[in-house]
């Protein structure tokens, strides 16, 4: 029996102190984004195109429209925002800076509140990562910023027949070290930007190019609590190169990166409001 006061597992309820914290986070973020020239967009809860954003379609909550076409609850906002701006609003606006404050939903009943930022037709990830850092500074939260490059694991898999992307997904360090390759071992233990210059002299040229991008991003961020994670890999349909996560202990507060939709390259990030609310209310 389901009691009257029960809510589905994974759904969110905010009241009193937690509702106030949620609104404070959203107000601070929206004020900073507005000051940086971003405009707000609220996308439909239902979408025909969520399969373009989600790696595992089993996460989608699907229904049918009046004409029996398959539609899904919004499980990701990024590609929908870019698609709507490009395909639907393109003739009416030249604005390329957008943000949204809205939840996403995944199967069976999980709800996640997000503050998302998309800077379209832009390749420089630091242009949005610095804004994310400003928001956390204003909230007086000092988490760790982890900088990665998804291209590096893909290049390493091409170089070494023994490796698969699953090895990077599960951080199989023993397998990496068993290759007995000096530069690879140094890459495994790379954490700080000061270590990159030594590596640049011994790694293959393709890896060198990607490390230089990480170094540039790290220096442009001007944030003291930053680490490098070149072996990090997560399966994503659109993030394809530089990538960052904002972390405290085991909690991820934000993540973002560079991505491509058709021929348009953009950068963006999402702040996970629920995790931040929990920290601030504690």
CATH topology of the domain at 1-142 and 264-282: BirA Bifunctional Protein, domain 2
> What best-fitting shape do the alpha-carbon axes yield?
globular
Order of helices and strands: HEEEEHEEHEHHHHHHEEEEH
Number of helices: 10
Helical content class: 25-40%
Provide the CATH top-level class of the domain at 1-142 and 264-282: Alpha Beta
Strand arrangement within the widest β-sheet reads: 1-5-6-11-10-9-7-8
Strand content: 25-35%
Q: Give the C-alpha Rg.
A: 20 Å
Look at the structure and give the mean pLDDT.
93
Classification by helices and strands: alpha+beta
Q: Low-confidence parts, pLDDT < 50 over ≥5 residues?
A: none
Number of strand elements: 11
Intertermini distance: 33 Å
The CATH homologous superfamily of the domain at 1-142 and 264-282 corresponds to Bira Bifunctional Protein, Domain 2
As an assembly, this protein is: single chain
Major pleated sheet: 8 strands, mixed
CATH architecture of the domain at 1-142 and 264-282: 2-Layer Sandwich
Summary of the model, kept short:
With 282 residues, the protein is an alpha+beta fold. The protein is built from 10 helices and 11 strands.
